[in-house]
Amino acid sequence: MTPLKILFIGDVVGSPGRKILSQVLPRLIPRWGLGLVVCNAENSAGGSGLTLKCFEELIDAGVDVMTMGDHVYRKDEVFQVFDKSDRVLRPANYPSESPGPDLALVTARDGTPAAVFSVLGRTFMKPVDCPFHAADRMLERIGVSTRVVLVDVHAEATSDKMLLGRYLDGRVSAVLGTHTHVPTADEQILAGGTAFQSDVGMTGPHDGILGRRYDRVLSATLTFVPSYFDVATGNPRLNGSLVTVNPENGRAMAIQRVSIGPEDTQRILTGALAHPAPPVPPLSGLESPG
């Protein structure tokens, strides 16, 4: 069976994030042989929330599943999105009464079944149910329907993300972090065969403060006068993580950080592809280390 390549795209911020994703992703899907594309979309509408228009832009670009985070309900239109699609996910450790689906069971482009869900961390964030128990509940629901499972852990604390990665090691294909908007250099395959990265970074403008205009953030910080943190515009980058999975056992075979900036985008658009996908190891002999 052919390995499954999953591209997980970090927090899409505003129109600059949507634009670079829409430019690059349709070309990466065939060139990298992507079977599944997941992105965190909770900041895609003006930097906070998701609208129907933004949802449609991301779908048209080739995104298969969208995870959300603590800004899931910032835009009222998200409820229309929930009515339209079951592939936009609220955090699984929100209360059961919370609107929106918390689990996506999908079929990749090559026919491989896969599951996606997200959980919120609890350190430095608003009170929320236990992400570890929520993950257990999701895995019980997934059951034997698929071995390929991707988890978005949307959290402030690196320790929260690392601990969840270890907790789920061997039970899911990948645990990938979002929320801090800063990519980490700790991508690895854990002992049980789960790909992990503390944060895959932000897809959006990098000339500001986590996607917001520098001058607005600085003014509010220095004067304590509230200011609207407009989305920045310059140096748009697409950040994410490319994970190759053995669909037969759900174990990760490879993980690579992805960071595509303006110059890379131009090369991709003109056919001189930057960031070639990593070589895929053979499917035979894929037992996890240890």
Topology:
Elements: E1 4-9, H1 14-32, E2 36-40, H2 52-61, E3 65-67, H3 78-84, E4 88-89, E5 104-107, E6 113-120, H4 131-142, E7 149-154, H5 158-168, E8 174-178, E9 188-189, E10 195-197, E11 204-205, H6 214-223, E12 236-245, E13 252-260, H7 262-269
Parallel strand pairs: 1-2, 2-3, 3-4, 6-7, 7-8, 8-10
Antiparallel strand pairs: 1-12, 5-6, 9-10, 11-12, 12-13
Helix pairs in contact: 1-2, 1-7
Can you walk through the features of this model?
27% of the residues lie in helices and 22% in strands. The protein is of the alpha/beta class and 290 residues long. The chain has a single domain (4-269), classed as Purple Acid Phosphatase, chain A, domain 2 (4-Layer Sandwich), CATH 3.60.21.10. Residues 281-290 have low confidence and may be disordered.
Overall shape: globular
Uncertain stretches of 5 or more adjacent residues: 281-290
CATH topology: Purple Acid Phosphatase, chain A, domain 2
> What is the gyration radius calculated from CA atoms?
18 Å
Portion in beta strands: 15-25%
Major sheet size, sense and barrel closure: 7 strands, mixed
Number of strands: 13
Number of helices: 7
Helix amount, in percent?
25-40%
Number of domains: 1
Binding site for Fe cation 1: 11, 42-43, 181
GO molecular function: 2',3'-cyclic-nucleotide 3'-phosphodiesterase activity; metal ion binding
Organism: Paludisphaera borealis
Binding site for Fe cation 2: 42, 70, 154, 179
